[in-house]
Inverse folding.
């Protein structure tokens, strides 16, 4: 799977409708985003918890109402060429609510990172996903264990990935040759290729994950050679800022694999 990290954030303002639309059009399999709560309790999609770097405004999302955020230009800061041009400035690009994201792109999978620890906020998140009939195509991710455990307690059927702590525990067990049970509370290990000097993703790690019925998704991969390396290693998903490149690399890789195996691949 190709996950469009914040949409096609190489060619359009991250986490906006233009970026998500470009990602869908180029063939990405899933959209990746982060969610935050506004002052008046609306769920919006944005990576940072402030609007300073992505709009013509300033301040924390939690201190702004949805109306205040909608009045800002979320295409203002985007530049594809190091500040020479700003093609989306003044084009009416707004922040999206989670409901708008899930209804505008009503068939594609969505991977969302959540940070809040308040149970009422998480219940609202679950209700929003349910109201958009999106529970079958959403996966919730978080670096933190607590919100994921709370979400699983509130709705055990909602797909989640492993927290940083859970992924680290799984990695250590795989290194020690300890087999993880196939009834883990999460469905995917979403990890970086490396963590400092530590090689996280190895053949052993992927084999252990697949034996435990886990998918392996790697973030954030924008280099073509790294994409090819990970595809050959057997990962299940690439999280990338450049989904058009990743889709093209995957298609070429599948074609070369099909030729090398006489027409048979894992896709066949």
């Amino acid at each position: 799977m190709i996950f469009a990290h914040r949409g096609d954030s190489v060619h359009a303002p991250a986490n906006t409708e233009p970026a998500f639309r470009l990602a869908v059009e180029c063939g990405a399999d899933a959209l990746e985003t982060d969610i935050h709560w506004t002052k008046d309790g609306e769920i919006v999609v944005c990576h940072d918890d402030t609007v300073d770097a992505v709009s013509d405004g300033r301040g924390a999302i939690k201190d702004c109402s949805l109306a205040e955020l909608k009045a800002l230009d979320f295409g203002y800061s985007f530049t594809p060429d190091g500040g020479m041009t700003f093609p989306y400035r003044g084009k009416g690009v707004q922040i999206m609510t989670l409901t708008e994201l899930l209804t505008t792109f009503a068939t594609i999978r969505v991977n969302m990172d959540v940070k809040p620890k308040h149970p009422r906020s998480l219940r609202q998140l679950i209700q929003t996903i349910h109201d958009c009939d999106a529970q079958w195509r959403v996966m919730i991710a978080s670096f933190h264990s607590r919100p994921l455990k709370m979400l699983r307690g509130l709705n055990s059927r909602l797909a989640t990935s492993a927290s940083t702590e859970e992924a680290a525990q799984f990695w250590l067990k795989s290194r020690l040759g300890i087999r993880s049970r196939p009834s883990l509370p999460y469905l995917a290990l979403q990890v970086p290729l490396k963590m400092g000097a530590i090689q996280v993703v190895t053949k052993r790690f992927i084999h252990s994950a697949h034996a435990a019925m886990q998918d392996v998704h790697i973030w954030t991969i924008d280099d073509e050679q790294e994409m090819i390396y990970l595809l050959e290693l057997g990962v299940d998903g690439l999280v990338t800022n450049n989904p058009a490149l990743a889709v093209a690399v995957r298609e070429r890789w599948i074609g070369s694999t099909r030729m090398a195996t006489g027409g048979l691949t894992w896709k066949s």
